[in-house]
Specification:
This protein is an alpha/beta fold. The protein contains eight helices and eight strands, in the order H-E-H-E-H-E-H-H-E-E-E-H-E-H-E-H. The chain is globular, with a radius of gyration of 15 Å.
Length: about 190
């Protein structure tokens, strides 16, 4: 399964999306650029934490598209996710076993490191591994009762994608408007 296929499935979901640096952000931008997407253009390893803070601060569903290399840089986030476990938080880790945005150097998941076991060991209530799109779709149906972590095994192939033309300031500003406007609408119902 390709990471771009995983991202396409997540882009169809209703909610906010935080995308990891490099190719995941660029692929999401190419598939569906809009104000509900927060593209990480720096800060490797922090997408899961940013998404968690966002999920804890409002009611909309939050999907985080992360990579194995980034999650390995911030393993403490898995324990923090377990502690708070907001039911509107879903972390999707595209595990291609390489640092894909920098030249496909192997990550620790190419060896003995198992992110599913680490996430479960940290106490997360729902952690699933998927190897194809059908399994991803079935697993995403769980995301209504509890926080969810999905380890999506992907190949190392990347899609030819453009550089995101938005500046970090523009990305932040339009995302903040989206969150603020929608939360006011939701609170007034």
């Amino acid at each position: 399964m390709r990471r771009s296929e995983v991202i396409r499935e997540i882009a169809r979901c209703d909610g906010l999306i935080v995308a990891n640096i490099g190719f995941p952000s660029r692929e999401l931008y190419m598939l569906q650029d809009n104000s509900r997407n927060f593209y990480m253009l720096g800060s490797m390893g922090l997408a899961s934490s940013i998404g968690l803070g966002l999920a804890c601060s409002q009611k909309r569903r939050v999907y985080v598209i992360d990579g194995d290399g980034s999650v390995l840089m911030n393993l403490g986030s898995l324990a923090t996710i377990a502690r708070y476990a907001p039911s509107n938080y879903c972390l999707i880790i595209a595990d291609n076993k390489v640092y894909g945005s920098t030249g496909n150097q192997p990550t620790a998941t190419a060896g003995k490191t198992d992110l599913m076991k680490i996430a479960q060991g940290a106490g997360n209530p729902a952690v699933r591994r998927v190897k194809n799109i059908a399994a991803l779709r079935r697993t995403m149906q769980l995301f209504s009762k509890t926080s969810l972590i999905v380890i999506a095994e992907t190949d190392t192939k990347t899609t030819e994608v453009p550089i995101i033309p938005h500046t970090p300031v523009d990305i932040k500003a339009r995302f903040m408007r989206e969150v603020t406007c929608r939360s006011k609408t939701t609170d007034n119902r």
